[in-house]
Amino acid sequence: MLRISQVTVHVADCDEACHWYTEKLGFVRRQDETYVDGTRWLTVSSPDQPELTLVLDQRPQSAADAGVCKSPVFVVETDDCVASYEALKARGVHFNDAPMAEPWGVTARFVDLYGNEFHMYQPPIGGP
Fold first, then answer.
1. pTM (global) more than 0.85
2. Which domains does the chain have, with CATH numbers?
3. What is the residue-wise DSSP string for 61-116?
4. What is the tens place of the pLDDT at every residue in 111-122?
5. What pLDDT band is residue 61 in, cutting at 50, 70 and 90?
């Protein structure tokens, strides 16, 4: 069976992005290696989901620059969308909208410091 283990997020500055993901979202730095050719492998993940990591990819000398703010939409699940919204907003996370109840659960959208969008999702009581 195939499962997603990593998602690449194109960033303008690895250190700045790592700080944002760890300080604002509470993620954990998992790997941070710089290789001989200057390539940096920097990953972060939720402490509650260490098996899925975000690769923070900074490559100013390549076409990857065009990918900043054009990453796929990510969905992060929470047990309490309103409480998570309040906590993240207090840390300075910018939300595009406040939590809204939908037939499939409660959702709110936020962006990282480069404009990559995340959908926060709380499943309805009793499951989706």
1. no
2. 1-59 (3.10.180.10), 71-128 (3.10.180.10)
3. TSGGGGGTT-PPPEEEE-S-HHHHHHHHHHTT-EESS--EEETTEEEEEEE-TT--
4. 998 888 888 889
5. very low
